[in-house]
Give the backbone structure.
Amino acid sequence: MKLTKRAGLAAMMTCMATAAAVTPAAAGSSVPVVVPLEGLDAALPFESPSVSTGVPIPMPGSPGGPRHVAGSLTPSPLLPTLPVTTELPSTLLKAPLSDPITDEKLGTAAITSPSSPLRAESPGAILKAPLTPPQGRLFGLPALSDPQAGLLAPTLHGSPDANLGLL
C-alpha cells in the first residue's frame, strides 16, 4: 500500500472516530442546566437553594398528509398539523432548612420532577372551496356553494409529575 493511500485511510478513520465520539452527545433528549443561585447567599439570611434541570430538545415529526373528502374539491385538512415531540427533563430543587431559633440544620427540602414525554401539535387549517364538484344536472359544470374556513386547535399532551420531600 502506498504512503498516500495509507494517509488517506488514516484521515478517513480519524474522521469516522471523531463523528462517532460526537454523535452520542448530540443524540440526547435534553441539555442539562444547573441554575447558578450562589450569588443569593449575600442577599439572603439563609443558604441559597439549588436548581438542576434541563432544556428539552424538540424533535419535529412528519405532518399527516391531506386526505381526500368525498364531495369536496380541496383536501382536508388543507394545512396539516405538525407534531413535535420531546421529553421534559427531570428537575431537582433543593433548599436547606435550618431552625430559625438555634440555626441548627434540619435537613434539605426537595422538589423533584421525573422526566416525562411531551407531544404538541401546531394548529392546522380547513378550507372548503366555493364550488362543488361537477354536477350532472348542470352539464358537468360546478355549482356555487358557501365558502367555509376553520382552524384546527393546537394540542399539548403530557403528564408531568412532582414530588415534595425531605432529603
Observations:
- The mean pLDDT is 80.
- DSSP finds one helix and eleven strands in the chain.
- The two ends are 64 Å apart (CA to CA).
